[in-house]
Design brief:
2 copies of one chain form a homodimer. With 434 residues, the first copy, chain A, is an alpha/beta fold. The first copy, chain A, has 2 domains: 245 residues, Rossmann fold; 122 residues, Rossmann fold, CATH 3.40.50.1100. The first copy, chain A, has 18 helices and 15 strands. The first copy, chain A, has a 7-stranded mixed β-sheet with strand order 1-4-5-15-10-11-14, with helices on both faces. In chain A, helix 3 packs antiparallel against helix 5, helix 5 packs across helix 6 and helix 12 packs across helix 13. The longest helix of chain A has 20 residues. At the A-B interface, helix 3, helix 6, helix 8, helix 16 and helix 18 of A face helix 3, helix 6, helix 8, helix 16 and helix 18 of B.
Chain lengths: 434, 434
């Protein structure tokens, strides 16, 4: 039997995160204070984040040690497997080699706990008792609730009201791990109360939920805010994905991949798999990096590269990034995690400087690939992940046409077991091809 | 960092299944033909099962080679991890060592694919094009749909109508893997049509779904029937669980476990983890084997040991086993996979001869343990699995009281991500303690 799954020992989890910042073609420009428009410093971020995360956000160091207490919790599911999708290759009849890094094996079913655990640890270490955050469909809120349970932190999640009502399973998952979940707008905050006063049936939005979570954190000394994507320290924590994949590719006898792919919403899973390869590329290695996004929210393929707010309400610092405008409202596609108007400044910089490509797909093509993958390989991809699956399949078909033994690596960022309603729509012809 | 997860290489998946039959204290009595009451032979089973499975059902051989084509598919997720639940131990303050074998990592999220893959392979090898089966909540139907996709077999699933309507997610999972799912009673069979003629809104039952699946298989030459538990060949295929666990315990420096536990419905996951240790026990090793069942369906703890039908309608051969009577209707608890009136003849024999203990728990105590486990270890157990979690925690607490370093091994048979409605009921006080 040919080996097609490589699993490292717990002692082989990377002992340090990789920071791409010092290797970028041009240094990242600083975030700007939303009120003054002046560069935002550590003091501006201190009410929301612990100082160790603020330092990581701005660090010039290439390697940052992972604390032992974080490794202990990561080791509940890490290292994650690297898998060669041999049955998919056979179904496609391609000479390409398709590898995927399986981040779906975490308790929450996605890559999100990689940073949730680190963030919970640093907050606990600085005396914080409680974290507030927002969540849409519940991926990030469940990751943070899990992490909170590991360190004995309370977690308060503001969940977009319409998702709270329509997608109860991730709400239950958060509660199972001890998280407190309220539909947003809620009566726990002033902004929530004002919104409810105007419209008691307000469906909520991610922007509004962010505003509630930030207000919650700012007004309580025992509470900080936690964000699941976009920021530099979040991408930093996700680099364990690509660092492990490098070790595993070596075990598989692969010198280097030809192309490294990931789906892109805020950029955290994409950063996780690509950044450890990005330095090699910047230094001349022949490795293509590809971001995959939905056609209905084409930030990298059709957005502008400029300073914009990270949230809809304009409360966060402005960051230089690709953006569709912070008031852009994407259509309600199933890949909720990819419905973001902006993108991580790091990812944006790589695309802007020609170090990373970006492609966009319509929803229907994405689910076609997802079903093909599930039937060949077993595991059912999340709608977000399915964007990377689509692009990996297209790379493999292109390699077939050109007769190339292309080595393709993509991040399998999460499973779709809590997204089966989307598959139901696709299989029964109810999917809009937005 | 202390190691607490042991993962073998793909080449270390066992190359043969372990057959306990020749080691049982007393040979199993033959099944009896439902019509004549005479011992049923291979010819009676041939319309339903391929000859290789009929032979395994009656085999006196201790080891039966696993075909390479089966190992290829099992290796998509096997070997599964053995995990030491160190955080749970700490939360309990116990000197006991708690190990669990994590079968939740399969594509279908449970141990069921271990036999589904083998059954699909042998049917394909004997020229069968199509499999029929029944499913309640969908655990078994999804495992068989996944296995069918791997070998290009059509899979027809008769799903209990009330579950089809109330639990759409596993139906979607089956369809994603290409399975055809109809609510039972259906108009695809005579028994289904007759039932619908009497009551067009019949909610269905597992017994009725079995009758439809058997009728489907008997009347079509290209179709066989497939069963997910109870039978000897099903338990045989599950022994990879215990065989791998033995290798992994050795890596963990454990000579032998003191107690091996599993939840018990039909007996397949329990057999999988315990049978490789049962021979050691029968030959004198000091290892306790424990079956854990729901108080509301107390087959082993309160049933009679006698010949009974395997199904509700009385169409299957009669088997000697513990039974509550084939017309017993258990209350609708959340652990649907444990709502079975009988038990595997192998498990029943071990209990009858004092080689295995049985304990029963009410639903509320089971979910308490499940939530405690999820908060400590991350992964959320299925309601069925949570019975084993409850018993493992109670063993650990008993060991604490007695100051013993007891080594506890249990089978984590599946995750609860498609059962979160049950957690919702528990967390919000809506669980009946049946």
């Amino acid at each position: 039997m040919a080996t097609d799954r490589w699993v490292l020992n717990q002692s082989e989890i990377p002992s340090a995160w990789f920071n791409i910042a010092p290797s970028l073609p041009e240094p990242l420009k600083p975030p700007l204070h939303p009120g003054t428009g002046e560069p935002a410093g550590p003091d501006d971020l201190a009410p929301l984040f612990p100082m160790s995360l603020v330092e990581q956000e701005m660090s010039p160091q290439e390697w940052i040690d992972i604390p032992g207490e974080v490794l202990d919790v990561l080791s509940l599911w890490r290292p994650t497997p690297l898998v060669r999708a041999r049955r998919l290759e056979q179904a496609l009849g391609t000479p390409a080699k398709i590898f995927y890094k399986d981040e779906s094996v975490s308790p929450a079913g996605s890559h999100k706990p990689n940073t949730a655990v680190a963030q919970a640890f640093y907050n606990k270490a600085e005396g914080i008792k409680r974290l507030s955050t927002e969540t849409g469909a519940g991926q990030w809120g469940s990751a943070l609730s899990f992490a909170g349970a590991q360190y004995g932190l309370e977690v308060q999640v503001y969940m977009v009201a319409v998702s709270y009502a329509q997608k109860p399973y991730r709400r239950v998952l958060m509660e199972t791990w001890g998280g407190s979940v309220v539909p947003s707008p809620s009566d726990l905050t002033e902004v929530g109360k004002a919104t409810l006063a105007e419209n008691p049936d307000h469906p909520g939005s991610l922007g509004l939920a962010i505003s509630e979570a930030i207000e919650d954190a700012v007004k309580r000394d025992d509470t900080h805010y936690s964000l699941g994507s976009v920021l530099n320290h979040v991408l930093l924590h996700q680099t364990v994905i690509g660092l492990e994949a490098k070790q595993q590719l070596a075990l598989a006898g692969v010198d280097k991949p030809d192309v490294v792919l990931g789906s892109c919403g805020g950029g955290s899973n994409l950063g996780g798999i690509t950044l450890p390869f990005a330095k090699d590329r910047i230094e001349g290695a022949d490795i293509r990096l590809v971001a995959v996004e939905p056609e209905s929210c084409p930030t990298l393929t059709k957005g502008r590269y400029e300073y914009d707010f990270g949230d809809v309400a304009g409360m966060t610092p402005k960051m230089e990034m690709y953006t569709l405008g912070h008031d852009f409202v994407p259509p309600p596609i199933h890949a909720g995690g990819l419905r973001y108007h902006g993108d991580s400044p790091i990812i944006s910089s790589l695309v802007h400087h020609g170090q990373m490509e970006a492609v966009a797909y319509p929803q229907g093509k994405v689910f076609e690939a997802a079903v093909q993958f599930a039937r060949a390989e077993g595991v059912v991809p999340a709608p977000e992940t399915s964007h990377a699956v689509r692009a990996a399949i297209d790379e493999a078909l292109d390699a077939k046409e050109k007769g190339e033994e292309r080595v393709i690596l993509f991040n399998f960022s999460g499973h779709g077991l809590l997204d089966l309603a989307a598959y139901d729509d696709f299989l029964h012809g109810r999917l809009t091809d937005a």
